[in-house]
Amino acid sequence: MTEAPGAAVVPAGAPGRVARMIxxxxxxxxxxxxxxxxRLATRLGLDGWVRNAAGRVEMVVAGxxxxxxxxVGLVRTEAPRTADVRRVAVADPPGPPPPPGAGFxxxxxxxxGTGRPEAREVPPDVAVCxxxxxxxxxxxxxxxxxxxxxxxxxxxxxxxxxxxxxDRERTVMRRFPLCAACASEYADPADRRFHAEPTACPACGxxxxxxxxxxxxALRAAEAVVAGGGIVAVKGLGGFQLVCDATDAGAVAxxxxxxRRPAKPF
Length: 266
Ligand SMILES: [Zn+2]
Ligand SMILES: [Zn+2]
Prior knowledge:
By secondary structure, the protein is α+β, with helices and mostly antiparallel strands. It folds into three domains: 18-106, Alpha-Beta Plaits, CATH 3.30.70; 122-206, Alpha-Beta Complex (DHBP synthase), CATH 3.90.870; 209-259, no CATH class. 24% of the residues lie in helices and 19% in strands. The chain has six helices and nine strands; from the N terminus they run βαββαββααββαββα. The protein has helices at residues 33-44, 65-77, 130-136, 180-187, 215-227, 249-259, and strands at 18-27, 47-53, 56-63, 84-91, 104-106, 209-210, 213-214, 232-236, 239-243. α1 (33-44) packs antiparallel against α2. The longest helix is centred in the N-terminal third of the chain and has 13 residues, at 65-77. It is elongated. The relative contact order is 0.12. The protein binds zinc ion (2 copies). One zinc ion is lined by residues 178-179, 181-182, 201, 203-204.
C-alpha cells in the first residue's frame, strides 16, 4: 500500500478508467462516513462500493483517473465533522474492478477486512444536529416532539454501540426493528438517514417511560415531580441527567446534598 495515488494505471473495464482500493483509518465509523463516501462517489461519477471493516472504512472506486484522484483527497478534506481521518492508504483493488455503470453501493460490513487489524475506535455520542432539531419542533413532521430523534450526523453512538464494525445489529437499537418509513429512509442514499444505524421514530423506536406510563403521560409525571421540588434522573445519551427546578432553593439544596457537591456550580 502507498500513502498517495499510485502511478500505475489499473485496467478498470474500459479505456481511460482506473480503479483503486482506498482504506481510511482513524475515527471513521459511526460518523456518517459511508453515506459521505456514497455521496462523494456519486458526485464524482465513480463506480464501486464502500464498507465498514474491523475499525476502518474500505472502498473500491473506479472511473476517470482525475475523479479517482479527487476521491483520494476528498475522503480526507471533506470528511464528516465528527470523523478523525488519520490515514488514507491507496492500493490496487483486491478483485476485478467494478465495470462502467455499475453504480456505487454500501456493502455489508466485514468483521476483519483485507488488511491487518487496527485499533477500534468507538465513536462518541453526538449532540442533536440542526436538521433534527427542526424536525423535533415541526408539528407536521413525523418526529415532532420525538425525544430520540437522530440521524447519520448526530445521536447516540458510544451509548448504544456494543461492538464494531458499526451496524445496527451490533448496537442496542437492534431491539427496535425499523418501521417501513424508517427503513426506506435508511436505504435511500439521498436521505439524511441513509445508513443512520440508531435511527428511530415514534412508530418503531424507544419511547419515554415512567414506571407504568409511556409517552406524554410519562413526561407529565416527570414534570409533576420536578414541579413539586423533586429530582428526576433522565436516562439520556452517555448516562443519566439529574433534573430539578433551578429556581427551587430546597430542590437545589437536596441535589447538592445527594451529589455531595456543596458549592461547585453544576
Ligand atoms: Zn441529526
Ligand atoms: Zn420508524
